[in-house]
Structures are given as C-alpha cells and as structure tokens.
Write a structure and sequence with these properties.
Strand content: 15-25%
Largest sheet: 4 strands, antiparallel
Low-confidence stretches: 4-11, 14-23
CATH architecture: Roll
Length: 143
C-alpha cells in the first residue's frame, strides 16, 4: 500500500511536469519531484523507521551527487537536522507551501522554500545547486 502511494506521487509529479510548457526549467521539475517524494516519505509515520531510512537513502543516491551525499552526512552530524529540508522533522502539510524557483543571480542555483504552517509559520529557504551528471541533473550542493 505504501509503495503504491509513492508510485502515485511519482506519477503525479511526472504528469505535472509533462503538463508544463516546453520552456519549463528541467531543474525546477527535477527538484519538485525530489522534494515532493522526499517530504512524503520522511513524513510517513506509518512505515517502519528502517524502511523509511532505506527509501530516503535511495532518493539521495538517485538525486544527489556523491559529494552532496557526503555533505548531507556532515551537515546532519553538525546540526542534528536534515539539511535537505533544514529541519529535524517533516510532515506532509509542508507540500502545500513548497515553492521552487531559479536563482536570478546564479543559473545553476535554485531556491526551495516552504512555510511551517502547522507550527512556527517560519519560512525556510534552502539554496540548492545542481550539476549535470551523465546527462541528468543532480543536487550538487546545499546551502
């Protein structure tokens, strides 16, 4: 049942991406798919913690460069928070306020923002740098 939910989320992301215009930014589409899936998995309180961690690790391998994966481990240890979302916990309501925009000053950098609507109402911004790797875009650096 949970696998079906994840597959449906991925298909929804793909359908949404296809519905956008031809000029839609590949980076925005990739980040939207990644963040929607990542937040959905990390906020699923009904699955076993080991299963969740395995799914999140698979997402990181698929969407992040090796250097970024090492950066994530380092930042997680230093901050005791998930640097992908800049928070300790995640919940599905974050998806309602998720916005991804291209940085006007740096063409390889994107701004991923969301508002904690259930708690502090604080707006979180994550700066994400992408890099091409084997004709695919991957997350190369998090700020």
């Amino acid at each position: 049942m949970k696998n079906l939910t994840i597959i449906l989320l991925l298909l929804t992301g793909l359908c949404t991406a296809k519905a956008q215009t031809q000029s839609a930014d590949r980076g925005i589409m990739m980040l939207a798919e990644f963040y929607k899936t990542y937040i959905s998995v990390s906020s699923d309180r009904e699955i076993d913690l080991n299963v969740m961690e395995a799914k999140l690790a698979a997402l990181k391998r698929r969407y992040c460069t090796e250097a970024c994966q090492k950066q994530i481990v380092k930042l997680t240890t230093e901050t005791d928070a998930d640097p992908i979302i800049k928070a300790q916990d995640s919940y599905k309501e974050l998806l309602k306020t998720l916005v991804i925009k291209k940085d006007n000053k740096n063409p390889k950098r994107y701004l991923v923002t969301y508002v904690d609507i259930a708690g502090s109402r604080y707006k979180t911004t994550i700066y994400v740098t992408l890099a091409a790797q084997n004709k695919n875009l991957k997350i190369a650096y998090l700020e």
